[in-house]
Amino acid sequence: MLSNYFSLTLVLLLSFFNYLIPQPVAGNLIDCERASVTISTKQIDEYSAEDFYILGVCEYENHNFNKAYNYFISAKSLGFADEQTLQNYLNDSRNELTKLEVKDELNLEKEDEVAINNYKHKVQVYLLNIIFVLIAFIGLITAFTLIYKYRNVVNNIYLGIFLFAISLALIELVLYWQDFFSYSPTVSIYRILFFLWAPSLYLYVKTKYSDTHISRKEIVLHYLPFFLVLVSLLIFGNFYDTINAENNIFLNALDFVMNDNWIKTIHLSAYLMLIILDFELKRKELDQGFKKWMLTLIGFIIILILFIIARAAFEHIYVFDYISKYFIAVYLILFISVLEVLLIIQPNIILGTINLEEKNKLNNKYKNSSLTENMSLRVKDQLLDSLNIDKVYLDNTLTLSKLAKKINVDRYSLSQVINQELNKNFYELINDFRIAEAVKIIETDNNKQVIDLIYECGFNNKVSFYKAFKQRMHMTPKDFIENRKK
Q1: Whose C-alpha in 248, 321, 379, 451 is 20 to 30 A from the C-alpha of 406?
Q2: pLDDT (tens digit, 9 = 90+) per residue, 286-345?
Q3: Separation of alpha carbons 193 and 166, rounded Å
Q4: Which of 464, 475, 401 is nearest to 431 (CA)?
Q5: pTM of the entire structure?
């Protein structure tokens, strides 16, 4: 009696728990492979509720929840006997589908975010490339202007060649980075143009001194590496093919010379030493403006050498190779920009020459002067204060004696300071300030009449004004005003 009661109780408890936690039919109770073969012999309109249920369980076990859910719906519509088990499968399938939908939505959101970030990155890259190309084109225009318009001063030709070489190299780098079309030449132009950089800068510095003469033989010698690489490329490049390239000694040697960063480092370093030695020999005879320009060029070459050394040391790292090229491009863009600004505000320093013979004559002329170095510096400071602060140059009756009296010094000492410290005579100095004042007035008011400009900046006649303006700005006042209006 007691045992029968215990058995009845156990059965009821098991039934209760089975109701609370109903379990789907285990996959191993249905042989999906056999069932699939059996069911496939029927037409779909002959499928029973049991058939749809079996198909649903098999798809569920294979995690094809969408198909499983559809099969279970069909089984339910046909009145499958075990409604509770079927409902459990339906609920589970629906939950799994919901999870998949949420996951898909999250993936779509992530893909959208990645797409937006990629778009922003592309826009930034395109803008930078446009800026690079614009500045490089400005550099090319300036280079042609230096070579053609100012060719009468030989150092400007070498500066033009240097500017042309770096500007063209920048344009080619941008062609590599854009993705509008494929740019993949057998040999990059900028690798050849590199051998123009250092020789051109050295010859530019060397010919800044009016007493320096460079023979054609010396010019050819400096540009010989560039011509050898160029000619070799034209000759041996025509025989290039993918089968024999590795066995071609000439092509391998040419490839090594053009691409090896240590060779580039040695090439640049050699010319850096030549420029520094030349600068040190004449440093004491140079005025402050040219000294600063020379130090700027030396600093530019040193930083460029450091970039190339870094590329040589880490050339096996692809990412560094790409990033370092980008940094060099930015560096060249900054140099072109600085040069363009200096050509506007200090054209004489960039385009002019230095007459060391005249400088030596001045030193001999004043070798018996009682003016000490400290006294000379004090007079120079007083002179510059009078020009920059008091703007005495606006007085069109200003003379050397009048200016000397104003700063309380004798006219001979003032003349010596202007000649030795500023490397000019009195009228050159005053006209420099007057033309600078004229430029400021034009920049403030583009509609200013030239006749009014003459007297406002301190001149007292048209001829002197036009001559001084054209000498410093390399164009007439009228042309300058018209250019400002554009």
Answers
A1: 451
A2: 777 788 888 999 999 999 999 999 988 887 777 777 788 888 888 999 999 999 998 888
A3: 8
A4: 464
A5: 0.55
